[in-house]
Amino acid sequence: MKEQIENLVNDEISKFDVFVDDAFIEQVEGKKVFHIVIDSDEVIDLNKITEVSRVINEIIDQNEEVLQDCDELDIYSKEKGEMVA
Questions:
Q1: CA torsion angle for 77, 18, 60, 67 (degrees, to 10)?
Q2: In this structure, is residue 82 part of a structural domain?
Q3: Closest Cα partner for 57 from 33, 38, 73?
């Protein structure tokens, strides 16, 4: 599943210096949720994950079959610790 998502989105999200770390389906409170986990060598701030999520959502909208009838799509980044200003 991860490889399929990587093939779809990596060209577009690499512009943000991020990559797909994982992609999996999980049952959460009776819902089937498709998770896409984004990672980077740097801390991913809220603005960047918002932009990356928009790009991924557009791609997934054009390739809905990858969602496998999931109820939700959850895109989030790995936590790297505190960001130093």
A1: -50
A2: no
A3: 73
CATH of the domain at 58: 3.30.300.70
Q: Which amino acid is at 26?
A: E
**Per-residue pLDDT reduced to its tens digit, 39-50:** 999 889 999 999
Distance separating alpha carbons of residues 71 and 7, to the nearest angstrom: 22
Q: Which residues of 56-68 are buried (b: 16+ CB within 10 A; e: fewer)?
A: beebbeeeeebee
Q: Which two tokens stand for residue 53?
A: 């999520």
> What element of type H or E holds 35?
strand 31-39
Q: pLDDT for 3-54, tens place per residue?
A: 999 999 999 999 999 999 999 999 999 999 999 999 999 889 999 999 999 9
Q: How many CA atoms lie within 13 A of 33 on its CB side?
A: 12
